[in-house]
Amino acid sequence: LISSATKSLRMEMEILEKKLQDAQMKLAEKDGDKDKEIQSLKRLISELEFQLTMEKSNNESFLDKLRKEIKHKSEDLEKLTQEKTQLIHSLSQVQEENSLLQDTVRRECEERFELTAALGRAREQVLELRRLSATLP
């Protein structure tokens, strides 16, 4: 009876040891799979971090270019504004000079008209004097 019980216990122990080995192998396989998955995720994280770094670098470069372009455009705008102000000032001076010249031409035309009228009267007087002198001995 003892021998049979011992034998039965040994067989049960062998079965349990085999189950334990199987469970340990499955656990080792799962650990290996988890390690592989962890390594895969670490590689993916590294790639994504690299892509993020590249994107940041590209964005900073793009922002620098935009800042330079904005600065250049601002300088151009300031120059154009100054040129516009100068042109407006020059236009104002030219308009003022044009107005003075028109006024001068108007006065000279008036003087010419008066002189022409006076010359016409003087001619008439000369002709009148010639007629009178021709009639006188």
UniProtKB/TrEMBL annotation:
InterPro entries: LEKR1 (IPR038799). Residues 6-33, 63-97 form a coiled coil. It comes from the Eukaryota. The keyword Coiled coil applies. The keyword Coiled coil applies. Keywords: Coiled coil. PANTHER family: LEUCINE, GLUTAMATE AND LYSINE RICH 1 (PTHR34251:SF1), LEUCINE-, GLUTAMATE- AND LYSINE-RICH PROTEIN 1 (PTHR34251). This is LEKR1 protein. The gene is Lekr1.
